[in-house]
Structure formats: C-alpha cells, structure tokens
Amino acid sequence: xxxxxxxxGGVLLVSLAGTAHAQYTQNFDGLNEGSLVGQDGFFQPxxxxxxxxxxxxxxxxxxxxxxxxxxxxKTAVGSQxxxxxxxxxxxxxxxxxxxxxxxxxxxxxxxxxxxxxxxGNNVGSLSMQPFGATPYTNQGLIMLFYYVTPGNVDSKIAxxxxxxxDSGADVTxxxxxSPDNINQTYPQGAFSELSPRSWHRVSYVVNYTTNxxxxxxxxxxxxxxxxxxxxxxxxxxxxxxxxxNMAGGAANAARLPMPTQFRFFGGGTxxxxxxxxxxxxxxxxGDALCTxxxxxxxDFNGDGFVDFFDYGDYVACFxxxxxxxxxxDFNGDGFVDFFDYGDFVFAFEGC
Length: 351
Description:
Elements: E1 4-8, E2 11-15, E3 24-26, E4 34-35, E5 53-56, E6 74-79, E7 88-93, E8 101-112, E9 122-129, E10 142-147, E11 157-161, H1 179-183, E12 200-207, E13 212-220, E14 226-230, E15 261-266, E16 274-285, H2 308-318, H3 338-348
Antiparallel strand pairs: 1-2, 3-16, 4-5, 5-6, 6-16, 7-15, 8-12, 8-16, 9-10, 9-15, 10-11, 12-13, 13-14
Helix pairs in contact: 2-3
C-alpha cells in the first residue's frame, strides 16, 4: 500500500495517495487474482516480458505454489512457462531517498517445472531500479536467487548479492556473492542450501550514506531456523577491502543518483521452466532484520481478536493515551517512533 501519515483532529490517518511509496508492504492477499501489473502501482518495465501473477496457493493454473507457513491466501508468482513472451518482470516505485538506512524483507519460493534439458542457473531476483548493466545508472544492488547445480531440477538454491570495489567497479564482473562464499562454506551453508518448493524469508539492510550492504539474514519458514551475517570487513577471499559496496562504490564515489523503484524478476533460459514466488514484502526505513518465522500479533488490546479496535487503541497509545499494561513501543527497541507505527500497521495487515 502507499502509506503516508498525517494528523487530523488528533487522529492519525493513513493516506493511500501518491506515486511513490515512502515505505512499502504487500502480502498480496488484498489484490485480485491475475496480473500484478495495474494493481497497487505495479507496472511492466520491459515490453514483451511476462507479468507476475497474483495467485492463490495450490492453484494448478498458476504453478501450484505451496502455502506459505506465515502467509495468507495469495502470493505473487512469475514464470516463463506457457508463453513466448520471455522472462517475468513487475516493478513499482519506492521513495528510497526518504532516509539513508533501509531494511528489505521478502519471502521467496522457487521450483522448476519445465524441460530438464533447459534447466539454467538464474531463478530470479529482487532489485533496486533503475540499475542497468556496467556502467551502472543508480546506487543499489541486486539480490539474486540461483541454482547451485544447474541441470538438476531438484538443485538447492543459493542467494547472492553483487559487490563493488571502493571505486564502484565490480569485485568480479557479473558475479554475485553469498555469505557462504565468504565463510568458505558454499554450497553447504545457510545461504546456499535453500530447498526448492519451500518458503524462506530473506532480509537485508542497506545504507545509502556509506553505500553498503550491512547485514543479511535467511530464515527457513518451515523450521524457523535463522542465520544472520554482518558484512563489514568480511570480503576476504573474494577481494575488495572488507566492505560490501553497492553500485557507486564507497560512499557513492561514482556519485550515482538514488534508485526510485524495485523490481521482481523471474529468470531462466529460453524455453525453460523456472517459477519464483514472492510474499510478505516489506521495504522499511531503519535497521530491523526480519529474522523470525512468525508475524507479531496486532491484537493490541488483548481481547483475542485483531480488528479496528486494536488499530484505534494503538493510535491512541501512540499519541500518549495507552490502555493499562500497554505501550506504543511495538518493535521493542526502547523508543516510540514512526518505526513502531509502521511495524504495527504491517502486523495489522497480516505481515
């Protein structure tokens, strides 16, 4: 949803207007089944690409995506199957320059449902946009999902991010790096053993002032097992000076402009059968990795129901009038601020 906050008559209101989301959350349950393009600001960035589709779980017409243990009823799924239109893409706007530090969280699921002979390595990605190829057009980075063993339809899946030298040049042109590469545990580490047809939550923190990727985390939503990796000083065996610089280099040495959008991408080889699904997307200001498998309860008044009484009670508490035994520090960081408000709204919408 497009969320801005204002006060009117002492009551906080959420506005759904505007072209760029200051922060963005979407679990797809409130969208109509079918093309994601044209809903909640999503558009098709590359003519001829397939649109991502809003799909109910276990829908045989939309790739039989299995239910997300922490999801609702729908997901956004992209594939090149059953179409000659190419790869899958859908894009939306985010006001990245609203603050320097951002946390991106998303649940991901992948499967291969095509000709085994065409099984490639690129599953899909979530990226900041516009990005382009070298030379890069904006600050930012790509989070890539790729098969560890191309050609094996049951291959494990790894997560990687592209890294850049202080100058802004690629550490290795076209390469993506997993924390398991740094730890020399690839392909048996937590970031390179994601099972296909299984849901995982991936989270990472970026800082546009230092222009770095600072933290990454992955959680298996079936088991709850979670691993966090702090990037500073860890590039070691893959080169660089120890920083995971985004495009633009250290402190944006290349003086690239900020991104303005994000993109879902479904990869693969021509005629192949990659399927990738995203759910519970959250793009929020601040450093707050999503490392849990659960969703915090929005039952603020503790009556056993989540409804607009909880919303009203939280807004009142946020403005200083709390029910006995409650406080507005929803994320428990010791401060009451708009991060708490945003986190409550995210939980209220079902994460």
